[in-house]
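Re-running the complex after MR caught last week's input typo. The corrected sequence lines follow. Everything else is unchanged.
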Amino acid sequence: MSGLTPFIRALGAVVWKDLRAEWRSRELISAMLVFALLVILIFNFALELESTVRANVTAGVLWVTFTFAGQLGLNRSMAVEKDRGCLDGLLLAPVDRAAIYLGKTLANWVFMLLVAIIVLPIYSVLYNTNLFIPGLLLTILLGSEGYVAVGTLLSSMAVQARTRDILLPILLFPVAIPVLVAAVKATGGYLQGLDINEIRPWINLLITYDVIFTAVAFMVFDSVVEE
Amino acid sequence: MNAKPKFLTVLDVIAGAMFVTAVSLVFFYAPLERVMGLVQKVFYFHVASAWVGMLAFAVAAFYGVLYLVKKDARYDRVELAAVEIGIVFALITIVTGSIWARPIWNAWWTWDPRLTTATIMELVYFAYLMLRSGIEEPERRARFGAVYAIIGFLSVPLTFFSIRLFRTIHPVVIGSNDPGAEGAFDMTARMTQTFMFSLLTFTVGFVTLLWHRVRLGALSEKVEQLKLKLQS
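Corrected-run output:
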């Protein structure tokens, strides 16, 4: 148990640093939010979201919005570290690097959930759909965790490459597909009021991939940042 | 290192002979499927190349892990070679599948989960190549490649199990079938023999190709080093 406490302290420090930097500048959250709203509004034109169509596509629209906004946030959160040499500072600190990874992941997760918390009521009002179903909120919680877990790892690779801005979505989207498919299917299931037995396989798949992605990223993060 | 190993030459010959045998088995030994006719014969190579694709990606992930543990450039070469071969065979799978689907499903392509996940798997490994080409430093390129080969392989099982998870029209020939699948059939003994032989053929072919590609990688690295030596 004695090894756990410094680990958690380091993790807490990284999360706290990210949240505080974000609270002072608010540039990440505001960019993600404006972007998310734009995506939703553009979808309105692209898909002609009439009430009959809406029920079937809401799950897809929501997750595309979260995915794109999340990708924006992931890219930015690592680019900031890299540009001003903060990453080197973090790596020089005598703490377990897995703690740095988990801290960044947690902070990114918080950002994505913040966006979701603001987007959901707006979507509900604009499109007159009730999105406040406990199961749906759980799905968003789980889905964004898996996405952010693999996204944080890949963004720390992408920022070290030559083509960094275009690389992250290309690396991230195909790999995150299992999480996204499961999340969209579960969300759609809750929106259509399907029986829990039909939704459960997707939730299980979501949890499985959350665990796999988090565990694998946790183990390999060391070799991504080592110099 | 420089001379071509004798066993590799033997393997070349074996793989070539097996391939010729497999083709003749498919066309002359295996019986004609009653409903689908000739186009069903694409099945033997379609499944065999899908198998090789998955095997190649598994080998890549395995060598990715080995590289991260041992940090030996040899493992990195095997990993890259496996990914490249896997991409080719996954593409063969998609193309042969399309050839079969045109008469059976009446479309080259349908947005079926099995087809879509297989294509996404292909894109994962295109992304792998793009990641590698975006990094100059060889040691870092190898490290990132290994990590991405491991992460990318995690989504492959989804492709494999998608016909069991989703409702799909892609047939399952081995094991139980979804009632919605179209173009399913039961294999006769001769079909099974042909099928098993083409699986074996493609596996031997994969090993041969992998060996050649790894050797090529090692040689090109040697050329790089010699060039550097000449310049300095």
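None of the earlier attempt is carried over here. Residues 179 and 195 of chain B are 23 Å apart (CA to CA). The mean pLDDT of chain B is 86.
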